[in-house]
Write a structure and sequence with these properties.
616 residues, alpha/beta, Rossmann fold, Jelly Rolls, 5-stranded antiparallel sheet, 19 strands, 19% helix, globular
Amino acid sequence: MRYLLMLLLVAGCAIPARAQLSVQQGAARLAGQNITGVTIITHGFTATNNGGGYMLPLAQDIRGRLGTAGANAWLFDYDLTSDGGTGVFATGTSVLPAAGASGLSGHVVLLYDWAPESNETSPRWGESSGDALFAIGVELGLFDPLTRSAPPVQFIAHSFGTAVTSEAVERLAGYGVTVDQVTLIDPHDFDQSDVPTYDQAARLFDLGKPAGYGVTMWDNVAESDVYYQTRGNQGGLSSLVTADPEGRPIPGATNRLLDAADELPPGNPYGTFSTDSDHGYAWNTFYRGTVLGARPAGTAASATPNFNYNTTGWAHSIHNPSRVPLPAPAFFGPGQDHEHTESLLSSPNGTPNTAGLASLGLTSETINTARFAPDYQPGTIVNGGFDDGAVNSTLVAGWNHHGGGGDSGARIVESGPERFLRLNGSAESRTHNLTYIPQNALSLDFDLRIGAASSDDVLQVLVGESLLATISATTTTAGWIAQSLALPLSVRNAVETLTVRILFGGTFFNSPTIDLDNFAFTLGPPPGDYNADGFVDAADYTVWRDTLGTAGLGLAADGDLSGVVDARDYQVWRAHFGEGSAGLGAVASVPEPAGWVVAVLFAFALPTSSIRVWRT
């Protein structure tokens, strides 16, 4: 997060008008390909709405390392360049599989842009951006919530973007998908007293665990490495406005302090008229250097002559063919700086707060490997209750930028303790961002109030292109009325938008006033419950086995809703084995397919060796 540094970097990364692909079109390029690994890169704060490309050099460097020796490495540059705009893939900077190609194997580097949201001065944007990142990843096929599987995946994030990444990883935790590595560069998820109001306005520190952290090592994270600095040197132009944002160590990670005696440049090399800083140096020189194996051209040298970039940073990446194992996780101890650590964990002098740690069930030793259970619940629609966001703003967190939008007049209204969305004659529609709808989502639920009726207008509710309901607006309601709309199979286990809109009739004398609130999905029994008894056990395996190869609609053992009972439905059952009302202890072990069933699995071109079950 470099509040003014972006002004220079954006000059080289601004997005001109050029060929673009939608998220769905980008997903089509990956359909039928074998994704061997995933790297997802997320930037931090940008002062301008088109500054989200500032980490493009890092994405290009990583793709360059992984695309050697004839291996495929694709770069998907997801760009969001204006308030109220829609994110797309910029083909000029992306490197994509050719249209119509299939059967290729390769690594996917996704560069995620949330620039207009990073500088909003109201809360919930960090969460909604992370939710959209999760949904986009599902749509691209980078991870599969239904089978709890993914190729080896590494998230890399800088500054504010570390909290956005944490939100995406929390959603994967909610669905039980393992994240192999989370790499955080100068995580800025706290309120630093000497920087502008964005820390207080964004309130990223409300998102995670323990209290005061916006970045969390959730219980699905296998490994994590953090590189942070607390010196805060910066160029002269930046210092006229703000102190340089700094980072801090994160519980559960291998934390490395970048200091002036080793990784950072000596003194302040940034110059009177520069907007660069230690905060930017952490990713642009230090971490990029570890990808390239040498200091990037045009960047300041570190304090250590001939610093060895091949022993840290990307040297620890799960995707590095010559990987150097990560050191053991460390939070306290020599070499750490707890200037910005929450007081619940650390005393002012940097020693462990024993009582505070004990209140969390932790000690100064166990915090080194701490993992936290997610609060996120599958089926949640981010900001579906309109609890956060600026009242009467044209932009609504969760309802703009990543597939969402609508009339500028369709805004959050506050009346007493209530906050809700209002549609009327000058505010006809609103669309929620792309969101993943679980396989077992039965209905879309919300509250409706018609405050002013009209003679022939109606409210339409759509998920994607599917019309769920047309509700008459000819009569006012006596307060809020709960609505529950059945979801068709076609929108379940899918990434879709949600739209509410007024469809006007032929009379123009009056228009309705319709208030909407508390959008959520209601979930049914867990996926894999093929005999509909409320839990997933060996009896469901029998249903799958006995109907394997059957095609049709509404099949009991069609766990992925594909219209055929096949090997993927076995993966669904296996991933959710033990869930449901009987509890995890209801069955002893997962039955394996008999020999003839294995032969059929191979006939369906889905070998059992491809199954990657969530590690608990």
